[in-house]
Structure formats: C-alpha cells, structure tokens
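User: Structure tokens for this complex, please. No commentary.
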Amino acid sequence: MEERLYDLIFICRPDTPEPDVDKVIATIEHTATEKGAKIEKTEKWGRKRMAYRVQRLREGLYVYMVVRSSHGEVVKELERRLKVADPVIKYLTVRLDEELKRQEKLKLHRERRAARRPRKTTAAPAAPPSPASSEPPTATL
Amino acid sequence: MTEENAPQQQAPPAAPSGPPRHSGHGGPGGPGGPRPPGGRPGGPAKRGKRSFVRKKKVCRFCVDKADFIDYKRAEILAPFLQERGKILPRRITGTCARHQRWLTVAIKRAQNIALLPFAAEL
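Assistant:
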C-alpha cells in the first residue's frame, strides 16, 4: 500500500514545563514507530498566541510533526494518545501526500510548458489581459 | 449604482492589493462572458463623470505561481479574511477560482488549529 504523509500539530498548555512537552513528543514518536510509521520531522514552534481562546487559554505551545505511514490506523492511535495526554489542549492531523502529489504534477506541467516555448512563456501571461480589460468600455460608445 | 457601492465600502480592511472595484468584469474567466451590448459596461462612458479606470485584479497566488497553499502560514492567509473573520469572496480579492478553492481549505484548516479565528472575539 502506498505511503501517506500526515501533518500533526498539537498545542500544549502554556504553563507546561519543557520536559512534559518532550514527554508528549516522545510518546507520539514511540507510538508511531511501534505501529510502523516514521516521524520525518519534529518542530517546536514554541509559545504562540492562539486566534481564539481554547479552554480559556489565550496562548499555547505549538508542536509540529510530520508522520509518514502506510496505513491510517496510526493516525487513529496518535489522536487517541493526544486526546488523553493532559497538557495537550488541541490537535490536528492533516493528510498531505495528495496535495504534494498535485503540487508535483503542476510543477512538472509548468516546466514542460516552459520548455516547449522557452521565450514566449514570460511574455504571454502578462500581455493579453491588460488590453482586453481596458478596451471594451470605450468601444461600446 | 448601489450595487457597486456596497463592496467598495466593505473591502478596504482586508484587501491590501489595490483598490477593490465591483464585480470581476474582465477578470480571469469573468462570470458573465460575452454581454449583450448596452449593458453595464456602457454606463460609465455615458455618464462622463463616473468613468474611472478599473484596475485589473490579479490572483496573488497565480503571480507567485503557487501550487500549494500552506495552511500553517497564517500570515499569508490573514489578508483574505474580513475583520470579523469571514473569508473574502474572490470578487473582491481577485483570486482565481482554483486558488480560492485551495485558499478556503487552507483557511479552514488554520482555523481548526487556532492559527486563524473563526470569528472575531468580543
């Protein structure tokens, strides 16, 4: 089965001591590897102001991870862990691979098009729209 | 004329790229397509006073050649929200259909992880 890539973000209470945050990260990593997934990236964004209050809190410690897995069960388990972890107030998992695939495809498409007509591509997108939009109103008179 | 006024007054807080004008006539794949003669476009010419040059709005993401709109970067999504937290329609921002579609998804994700507000507080 194909591999899937997930973004995993969770927010801890702002008063959580650093070791506790690390503990949560360690649990996630442990659970992920146990289930056959791989943590590709772990980033601590640190204290950030949240756009709205969550559990009466205005700030939170953001942690961002990227998980690669071949089956969706891992996400289920990770989310369950986050739900029961005390310092975590909010979490979000987003599947990324399909969007990255689309991105690749578009990039390839554009490169191919650029290669086909090397000189014209820079001029073409800019030129046609400008005369078209300014002309019609005056022409109707 | 009242139709034109409403979006103009609403727009300034959130659309930083150029003065917003009414509906995206002549925009990328504009809604109407070919119009019957003597329709709306004729108006400004007749009433000489009201004729203003409509600045062409372009999709910011097309300019940047964006293939992917990252929900994690709240600062690039924020200009597309109204003060109250509503998502701005593309008739005001000039975003193309495809990018608006991606943009809404990105904004909604960002809202879920408290990077962007669902609605203004207070």
